[in-house]
Structure formats: C-alpha cells, structure tokens
Amino acid sequence: GLLKFTSDMISSPWRAVRAAGEWLAEHFCVPAFECIQEFFTALFQFATDCPIVSIPLVLLSNALLIWKFTAARDSVGQLFEITGKMTSAALGLKNAAMTGRVTDSGL
Hints:
Blueprint: H1 2-49, H2 51-99
C-alpha cells in the first residue's frame, strides 16, 4: 500500500518524461527519419540514373562544404581566442583576490 504509493510518487516524474519522449519519438522522429530516408533513396537513385550530372554536383557540394566549414572554423577560432582572454582575466582577478592585492593599480 504505502510503499507502492511512495514508489509511484518518486518515479512519476521519470515516467512522465519517458512517456513524453516516446510520444515525441513516435510522432516527430519517426516521420522525420522516414522523410530523410526517402530523400537519400531518391538522391542515390538519381546518382545511379544520371552519373554525368551527379558527379559534378557532388564535387560542387564538396567545394561549398569545405568553403563553409573553413569560414566556421575561423569564427570558432576567434571565439576561443576571446574565451581564452576572458579566462586569463578571470584568473588574474582570482589571483589578486587571493593575495589581497585587489586595487585598480594592481590590475
């Protein structure tokens, strides 16, 4: 009685999350995966039917991907540089606070 009720109360949030996850998977993920599967099936069928067209398209898409990833890598590098400077400043403030030299002239 009481043990079962307590167990059900403790596990109810997990069961709710699990039920929501199963519903999302069934109603959104499965149809999305089926759509992706149909897309790639049509794409591969096109590649086998028209190789003279698909080979240049693959080369063009690879060039575009390399170009875009290079631009993204540069942006990420700048972000890491800014993060590194902020981390260095935070460590400097921490060190100043630990040694007791927190003044404007000390920073």
